[in-house]
Amino acid sequence: MRYLRLFFTFFQAAMAARMEYRANFLAALAVVLLESAGMLFGLFLFYRNGYDLGGWRWQEALLVMAAARFLDGFFTSWLSPNLQKISERVQQGTLDFVLLKPVDSQFWVSVEQFTVWGLPSLLVGGLLLAYAAPAAGANPFYFLAGVVLGAVLFYALAFLMATTTIWFVKLYNVVNFLGAVLWNAQYPISAFDRPFRLFMTYVLPVYFMTTVPAEVALGRKGPGFLALLALLAGVFFLLSRAFWRFALRSYGSASS
Amino acid sequence: MEYAVVAEELRKTYWVAEKEPGLFGTLRHFVRRRYRRIEAVRGVSFALRPGEIVGFLGPNGAGKTTTLKMLTGLLYPSGGRAEVLGYRPQDRRPAFLRQITLVMGNKAQLLWDLPVLDTLRINAAVYEIPEAEYQKRVRRFASMLGIEGVLTQPVRKLSLGERMKAELMAALLHHPRVLFLDEPTLGLDVNAQAAVRDFVRQYARAEGATVLLTSHYMADIEALAERVIVIHEGRLLFDGGLKGLVERFAPYKEVRLDLEAPLAPGDLAPFGEVVELRGQSARLLVEKPRLTAVVARLLAEFPVRDLAVEEPPLEEVIGRVFREGRVA
Question: Which residues of A touch B65 (CB under 8 A)?
Fold first, then answer.
């Protein structure tokens, strides 16, 4: 309850801090629409020539892209600004103030920031889903449940990487890297060559974030796969908590 | 509880990467880093009773801040034991964190782009302060510090003094029982310094709070603390009354001289310890009992243009005491 209240207080403060930049929001909207159009066009080119990506029909592939858009919105609005703030806090030593508060520090640094720039991506994801799910005969509830679990998994993975900032201080590459991961997540995994597929399944569980929700929603995989995804997300989440606690032992608290 | 704060043989060792200047140094730093061990705190022990206000002194790099960070649970001690209000600080238990605060003169918790009240709101949510109580505390603190008018302005528009006062508000909003203040008056002008000091004194008296305070300004220490703890190079040098400190470590006055003609290095040696000699001006430390005689002789024997007698800077005295090996 207290955490919920705190979450909304952060949310208000973050919104207030960015409200001034209204023109920026329109620009971000235009960028996302153009970007999404580009992605759609790229995907469309394959299908126009009768080529299907690893056995996925057009509407089915759109579902994967919708999942990727949702994750991208989540990444841009919450994850990325918070990860950058962690790095900033370590650099300037103001993580001190978070650690001094009687609040779970991982919670604090994960939800403190928010930007509206990811909302257009969420919107596009919603539109894709609204079009593709009925057209492909997919179950939207399975799909959304899968996407939420995928987001938890993605968060845990991102936070694990971001935690290394306690030692390495700078973190920009991690954020770029995660952006690249998302880029690859927009296509059905079977579209890739085998080595890459294995890498994206077992090393970086990208497969589970976008392809699995679509597969379960389409009935290609049983709902048991959602349970597997939940398990995976849970394990990575707990891992991220343990690693954060471990890292804080090494926190140097910059400057005097 | 007999003691509010206990440090027992507290130690902290860092590994710091070293880098030589220039491109070559940078490349080497990147490929193969060399690390050096820094012993920031080397076995410091002291204990504060509840309600005590204690000054924590020492030159830059003495280990003051590191000690405070261990006592507040930000840093894990490399050795020894810390205990605050019966808790082990590094466990950072919520019940412990609710009762302490740390104010740092060179770091800000206030949200830069937002008014002070937004940060206070967040802290009220964090510490679960009821709305009515929150309003009461904000009004009380703001009037004590005289910053009622600026609470709705973005922090970046505040003056340094206003910002520091607002920092104090944010840090004390939850009514902590133990205050760790690290250079709370850093860079402030005399009036703002006095206001901050008065506020801390009033708060501590009203709440019966325990305060451990570091400062470079002797005036802060004199105004607030009856007891001082001095550390130097990570070791405890003195723990006792302020008067005792001055008598014990500063039986000197500093004499500043401006002369008509340059001096040779040996000329002043018989009068006291020469701290600085630069052409026609010099600073020397003279033991108090000899002061009058020395000044009279200086005036008689040298072409003096100007002469002033002052309290020597405390850091210098402490450094000097340490060099002489007169460790408490």
Answer: 256
Instruction: Tell me if B6 sits within 8 A of B77, measured CB to CB.
Output: no
Chain B residue with Cα closest to A254: B107
Comparing alpha-carbon positions, the chain A residue that sits nearest to B12 is: A252
- Looking at the domain assignment, is residue A95 inside a domain? yes
Average pLDDT value over all residues in chain A: 85
* Residue partners of A101: CB distance under 8 A and separation at least 6: A108, B97, B123, B126
Alpha helices in B82-231 (DSSP H): 94-97, 116-126, 131-145, 160-172, 190-207, 218-224
Quick one: pLDDT band at residue A256, thresholds 50, 70, 90?
very low
Residue A163 domain-assigned (yes or no)? yes
Averaged confidence pLDDT in chain B: 87
Dist. CA B265–CA B276, nearest whole Å:
10
pLDDT of residue B176: 97
pLDDT in tens, B172-190: 999 999 999 999 998 888 8
Question: Cβ of B122 and A16 within 8 Å?
Answer: no
Full DSSP string of A138-190: --HHHHHHHHHHHHHHHHHHHHHHHHTHHHH---HHHHHHHHHHHHHTTS-GG
CA distances (Å), origin B211, targets A177, A201, B232, B233, B238: 46, 55, 20, 23, 18
Task: Judge whether A256 lies within some domain.
Answer: no
**Which residues of B fall within a CB distance of 8 Å from A249?**
76
Chain B contact residues (CB < 8 Å to A): 14, 60, 65-66, 69, 72-76, 92, 94-95, 97-98, 100-102, 104, 106-109, 111, 113-114, 118, 121-123, 125-128, 182
Q: Give pLDDT, residue A135.
A: 87
Q: Please state the domain count of chain A.
A: 1
Inter-chain touch A255–B118, beta carbons under 8 Å? no
Question: If we measure between CA atoms, which residue out of B197, B173, B172 comes closest to residue B184?
Answer: B197
Range of the domain at A129: 2-248
CB nearest B109 (choices: A5, A97, A252)? A97
DSSP string, A79-105: IHHHHHHHHHHHHHTTHHHHHTSSS-H
Q: Which residue of A has its CA nearest to B116?
A: A13
Residues written for chain A: 256
Is A253 inside a domain boundary? no
Q: Which residue carries 């991961």 as its tokens?
A: A181
Of A2, A93, A101, the CB nearest to B107: A93
Could you read off the pLDDT of A167-201 as tens digits, one per residue? 876 777 777 888 888 877 887 877 777 887 777 77
Shortest CA gap A236–chain B (Å):
24
| Nearest CA-CA distance, residue B189 and chain A, Å | 21
Signed CA dihedral, B284, B290, B296, B298: sign only: negative
Nearest chain B alpha carbon to A13: B118
Q: Which domains does chain B have, with CATH numbers?
A: 5-247 (3.40.50.300), 251-310 (3.30.70)
Q: What are phi and psi of A92, to 5 degrees?
A: -95, -5
> Nearest CB to A13: which of B72, B94, B122?
B122
